[in-house]
Fumarate lyase N-terminal domain-containing protein (Ignisphaera aggregans), 471 residues
Amino acid sequence: MTLRYRIYLGNSKDFIESYFSSLEGDKVLAKYAAAVMLAHVKALLDQGVMPKEHSKDILNALVEIVKTEGGTLYRWVAEGKYRFEDVFEALEAYLHDVASIGAGYIAIGRSRNDHIATVLRLFTRDKVIEVMQKLLELRRVLLDKATEFRSNLMPYFTHGQIAQCGSASIYFASYEQIFSNIWRLLAQGLEMLSENPLGSGAASGSVLNLNRSYIAKMLCLSDALTPPYYSTGSRLFALYYLNTLSLLMLEVSRFAEDMIMLSNLIPNSVNPPVEHIATSSIMPHKRNLVTMEIVRANASKVMGYAMASQSIYKGLPYGYNLDFQEINALLRQAFDVVNSTLDVLIDFVARLSINGDAFLKYIADKPCWSSELVEYIAMTSGKPVREVYLTVAKLFKSCNSVDEKCILKILSVFGLSIQDVWSIVKSKPVEVSVKKLLEDAWIRLERDRNVIKNVIDFAEKCTAELLSYPS
């Protein structure tokens, strides 16, 4: 008979059990569940709690599940047509099937609550590292574009209106800075993911004093003590990353909206890769930037996952509740959406080109240099800035419309040509400092690459230690 936790509760019904079972969604957690169990079993052996004669089959089975990323366990479930509440019940049942009485030892010093809390930290850590690696690549291609289009002028907007003009480098460097900051938010949370809940029991600890250092070494976790009620009853780390992913997608969505707006407002100014464009079923002239439209929609989905998780969490008494299971699902979905979106965005930016002539044509009759003009006149004449501002404002007001004729008239008052104001714009301190700004960004990117490489190397070393027995 297959082990079930509810064996003495009585019969169940398929549709009821399906309602609260997370087994199908837990597939992505299976290798982590086996890895944590493997570390636990090795600790029991090391401390003489589990007899060695009962360990070989269990250790071999767990290693196999880790190496097949859960495939072995789920094939066994499918072949036996078994029902389980989750991957943790399925894993223990499988080990009982493989090792019989020997598997009875694995329940000591642990509960499903501290097991899942540990598994989720390992899963989240891997997913966060994946996002961080993709953000590094996104930042790289943004810096490539900032370098490539440094000599191109483009408009910058406030309140939905053209405000100033400047080098396209500023635009791409601004987004690189945004994603650099979010990368740091992701990195800061890694400390929470190194917490080790094993040994916390269901809520207030276990009688068995597990060797935390031994376990920590195999799972890349801290050996520091944490309050057991916190370890099993908090999902702060999950909410932290759901909200950070939401912030990431907010910024990604704004970039997507920029691309759509510029494409529509200034035709041919940005030229996206053709694979990111679709056309109409009835209007053959249409060129729809479909990937960026889906990016906007996916940003809303991730925001929804974060908000739904907080709504689930806020009303729960402290301690483990099965409601947490639904947060697990939302966290998995958020990572899936974010990772697929970053893949698309990296490809989009890497092959994006800018048409400098289209931008110049658009800004030719637009005084996106008015603030620079005011400052320049004030600095060269010694007059107060506000006095010059009011003079220029009055000149604009006197025009029937702000067009090329109006612009030339205003500039002639100050003895300037349109070429003069473009020279003023291009000689602003920020434009002169763009090269240094980009150099600093490249240095920061390389430093972050080294940080994540060290994290990955450390994790691989721990995994090798975990799988070192049996040979």
The chain has three domains: 14-108, 114-361+441-463, 364-427. The mean pLDDT is 94. Residues 112-148 form the longest helix (37 residues). The beta strands are 153-158, 161-167, 270-271, 353-354.
